[in-house]
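Objective 1b: paired records.
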Amino acid sequence: MTHETGPVVTLVSDRLVLRPFRASDGDGLATFLTDPDVLRFEPYGAFDPAECADEAARRAQNADFRAVCLRAGSSDLIGSLWFHRTEPDAYRTWELGYVFARAAWHQGYATEACRRVLDHAFADLGAHRVVAHCDPRNTPSWRLLARLGMRREAHHRSAATFADDDAGRPVWHDAYVYAVLAEEWKA
């Protein structure tokens, strides 16, 4: 699998392996994509196991997704990262997203995985800027972004909708925008 900047490389940190998805990762995805609480702030609902198998095959063809696995003693997925280069390419900007299994919460795995991706973005990909969005109600997510040294740049009011109410009207929610620049990351 290749990406616009070359082959997708497997990234390794102290406790984690961040690798391209495999079509066989459906069972691993099911450990968190079937959990409505994990997906509460995502733009999609819970998957069933068959949908997880299809999603694994789809992600295996998409270089923007990385499977997050424990490094020692297990190849089981504990999460997923999305890292996408935004347009135009000349802006050298990437967007980061993440979802982690409930069993992986509160252990620093998401921070470690995101930090490794940011290191790769700035050191190897020549990124100028990395951004991330999150729902303000998702306190663990925006705290993670702040821990990474990303700055809250905006609070967009009624900026996104993922569902309709019983009358068919969109249910709007706010969004935070976080970012970090290459020179800030190096510092």
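Objective 1b, second protein:
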Amino acid sequence: MKALKGKKGLTVLFTALFLLTISFGLYGCAKKSAPSKPASQPAAAPSATATTTAAAPASKTPAKAAATTTAAKPASANLKAAAMKIMNSQGCAGCHIINGKGGSIGPNLDKEGTKGHSIHWLEVQINTPKVHSPNTMMPNHDLNASQLKTVAEYLESLK
């Protein structure tokens, strides 16, 4: 009878450890399993715009080229503000260092743009991180296409 109690106790202990391990490793995975197709389409549009902007100053006068450059700066300030609002609402700083502040569980995002990841890669990493790293603790964030594009473009700009 004692041996049966011992086996039952071990079974309960191993079951509890298994459930704890699963819940810890899969935190937040009940959300969407793959990014939606519209999220990948906007990523192509900025590159076409960037190509047009890069080619345009060569054919324009220097004054117009300077005006184009000046117009881009407020957009990046707006991008940062919009991205930080989304990232704060998602609790990203709980695990990642962003702008010098935050947790250290996840990678430091201050220089994410120097790592060579495409905007599409970043979008997949944000919404479905297990695609790139099956053992990650990072949860799926299930952002809509606009939010996803904003955060991915901001992270790609951090250099």
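The chain has five helices and two strands. The first strand starts at residue 97 and ends at 98.
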